[in-house]
Design brief:
alpha/beta; 8-stranded mixed beta sheet; Lyase, Ornithine Decarboxylase, Chain A, domain 1; TIM Barrel
Length: 399
Amino acid sequence: MITPRAAAHAERLPAGELPAYVHDLTALDEHARAVRAALPPETELYYAAKANPAPGILKALAPHVSGFEVSSGGELAHVRETVPGLPLAFGGPGKTEAELRLALDLGVERFHVESEQELRLLAALAGERPDGPPVDVLLRVNLPVGQGDLGGAALAMGGRPSPFGLDPHRAGGCVPLIEGRLRLRGVHAHLASGLDATAQLAVAERITSWAREFGDRHGLGSMEVNVGGGMAVDYARPHTRFDWAAYGQGLAQLAARHPGVTLRVEPGRSMTVYSGWYVTDVLDVKHSHGEAFAVLRGGTHHMRTPATKGHDHPFTVLPVEEWSRPWPRPAAVAEPVTLTGQLCTPKDTLAAGIPVAELRAGDRVAFAMAGAYAWNISHHDFLMHPKPTFHMLGAPEAG
């Protein structure tokens, strides 16, 4: 669950640099290269920066992606500055006037419009720039799909009443609003996260068929269809990964059935999650009412993922043989142990009741699958503990 490069770095980190995020950019480069190779050449691959916007991550992905999807003015400015040569798609509900102005200033290549209000505001702002370039728009549509069609999705974003996107019955009414500097390029739909390749392809077929019919009805001709991201990531089985080969083959067949459509996907978590680890050390091991607990430096204020998703986060024990204390070394031996952090709440649990051969005070623990939705979604300042250090191993930014 940890690459040799990351394990070696985690083991030699000075104690004063723990906890730490360790990212293996060489492993990320290899994974991104494989994903790109699995997709049809004509399918555009955008990375959803919300998953992990660290500069080293963005730069490592840049050679392999067609562009980046951003969801706020902050992400927009950050990604444009970090990887200035690649296109940006600006999505997300609740875009403010200031954010839309910034997007126009920075030349965002695609706007994923979520509502009539947003479209009217964008048209008005674009109208203030009569000599500016065309403003290209995709209408985000919340298509009606049943729960069975979502294949046991971990998180449903559409197919039901939702703040995301346009009701499909209202999408047609938006077409007359796209005038002046605005140009309708196609449709965007992100309906769920946590789908396997078969379910993803079924949803992509539903989106593309609807978009093609919508485009024909409104005389769009060739068009773009963004079928979203949400490729399954299984924290309980960290060695399994989304079947990109099967997905790529299915997208090629889908494109053949819909000539004139440019398909675009925008994965996030499934691109970067496997190349990051949260590394920390064991402060104490204690037994309470017959159960073993290991108290770690740090906790869910650094990596909120297990609390957010309600799972036991996978980890590897990195034994440390030195023990300089004059008293016996606390340990859990051949028994289940619950790994907790330093916060004053029982919810500060990273993994509960996991059998270990041995886990001692002073050992290090590397939590796998920490390359996405980890530090960037955590409540950093709760109890004001020190922040972790960050380490990027391999090209483009060694650390």
